[in-house]
Records
---
Amino acid sequence: MENTVNQHIKEEIENAIKVIKDGGVILYPTDTIWGLGCDPNNDKAIKKILQIKRRTETKSLIILMCDIESVSKYVENPNPIALELYRQWNKALTIVFPRAKGISKMVMNNDNTLGIRITKESFTTQLIKSLGHPVVSTSANLSGQPSPVSYKTISNEIKESVDYIVDYRRDSFTEMKPSTIIRINDNGSFEVLRP
C-alpha cells in the first residue's frame, strides 16, 4: 500500500512540474492551506493567478522554498536573525525580506521586499526539489474571501480556473491555518504582520 501511495505522489509531482514548466497554474496543498502556485519567474502565469483571485497587481505574493540555504539566491544579504528564526520557529513562518533579487517584479512588493516561507511538508518539499526552484504560493480563494481550510472549502470558480489540481490530501478534514508573517528589518528588528 505504501509503495502505491509513494508512486501516486511521485506521479502528482511530475504532473504538477509539467504544468508549472508549461506556464500553467496549479491548485495544491501546501504546508499550511491549499494554494495557487506557478513559476515565480513566469509573468504570464503570475498574471493568471492574480486574475483567478481577482486580485490587483499591487499586492505581492510569496514563494515557497524547501531549504534555508536557498534564501540568499533571492535576497541580497539576508539577515542572519531571519535565518535563525526559520530554524527556531515551530510553526509555518513567512518572512518578508528587503532587497529581493532574481525573481519577477510581479512577485515582489513595490518596495522590493519578498515574502519567503520554508516548507517542511513532504509533498511541497519534493515538488520544489524536483522543480529546481521555488514556487509561488498564495491562498486558493477569491481576494477578500476567507482562506480555504480544506480542499472541500475551495470554491468551484477557483477549481475550474486552474490548469491542474493536485490529487493529494483532498480528503483531509484537518483544518489548516495560514502561516505567521514577519517583516524583518536590516537592524534585526521585526514586526509581526500576521500572528
---
Amino acid sequence: MGDQLLIRLCSPTFAGLKTGNLFSVDIKDREKFNAEVREFNRRFACKGIRMIPVKYSKKHVLIYVYRPKMLKRDFANEEVCRVLKEKGYSYSNADRCVAQLVKHLEQDSDFPHEIGLFLGYPVDDVLGFMRSSREGVKYTGVWKVYSNKDAALETFDRYKRCTEIYKKAHNNGVSLDELTVVC
C-alpha cells in the first residue's frame, strides 16, 4: 500500500480536516500487510494518525485510517453518544468504540451504518441514512446528505481541493510525512 493510494483516499484525514477514512485494498500476504500497518502506525503516531485493519476477507481488507483525538472530540457530542449507546457501544471511550466497531463488522450480518460517526459525518446525516438509505436524500457525495446540503457541499469541495493539493505536492516531491499535519 503506497503513499499515492493513501493520498488519493485519505488526504482530508492527513490534513486534519476529517476524522477518518475507510477503504478496502487487496492483499496477498496477510503477514506482510500487517507489517505494513505496524510501520504506518510507527511512522504516523507522532502526527496523531492511526491505521487499523477492521475486517479481513480472503483477498481483501477493510482499513480504517483515523485521528483518535478527533474521534474523541466527535464522540463528545451528546447526540453521537446517544446513537452509539443505542447501538451497544461504550460511547464514553473512543478507543473501546473502535474495538467494538471491529467486532460489529466481523460478527453482525448487517453493515453497521453508524460507521459514519467514526468517519466524521454529521450525526443528522448518519441518522437519516440509518432510517432509510433512499428516502429524504438531498445530495450524495462523500456521504449521503439528509440535513444541511449547503454545509455538506462546502465540506465535499474542501475535501476535493485538499486531495488535489496533496496529489500535486506529492507529485512534485513532497513526502506524505511532510504533508501530514499534527492535530
---
Amino acid sequence: MIVNQEFMNSEEIELITRAQDGDEAAFTRLVEQHDSRVMSIACSILGSGFDAEEVYQEIFLKVHRKISAFRFESEFTTWLHRLAVNAALSKKRSLNRRRNRETVMDYENDFFDSVSANPNDEPEKRQLRAEILSQIEAALTKLPERQRTVFVMKHDQGLKLKEIASTLGIAEGTVKAYLFRAIENLRRELEPYYNIGR
C-alpha cells in the first residue's frame, strides 16, 4: 500500500492502519478526534436533535464497516466528511418523504373531517352534510382526469399510494402530488360548505 504522506500526519496514518487491522482502541481514538465535526455536519443538515444523533451513530457504524476500503489517496477527514454528508442527506430525504406523506394524510383527514356526518349534529346540519357529499360527487367530475383517477382509487377503492403508483405506472411522489391537488381543488369547489359545523 502506498501512503501519500502529504495528506496526513504519521499518528493518523498509524491509527487508521491499526483500525484497518481490527484494533478497536485505534478506531475509538479516530472517533474521538473527529466526532465533534461529524456531529456538526449532521446538525447543519438535519438540525440538532434526535435525527442528527441517529445519523451520527449511523455514520460511525458505516466508517467502522468501510475503513478497510480507505486507500490513503486523500485526507481521512475528506473521506469521512463525504460519508457524513451523504448519510445526513439520505436521512433528510427519507424524513422529507415521510413528512410529505404525513402532510397529505393530515390534509385529507382535515378535509374529510369537515364533511363527515356527526351523529350529534342537528337535522339541518345533517341534511347540509348530505348535500355536501352530493356536491363532492359533482365536483369530482370537474377534476382533471389524473387527479380524479388517483382520488377515486385512494378513497373509493381504498388502494395504497404505492399500489396506485404501480397501477398507473407513475412515481409514488407524483401520486401524492395529484392527490394533494385533487383535494385542494375539491376544497376550493366546496368552499361555501367547508367550515360547516366547526
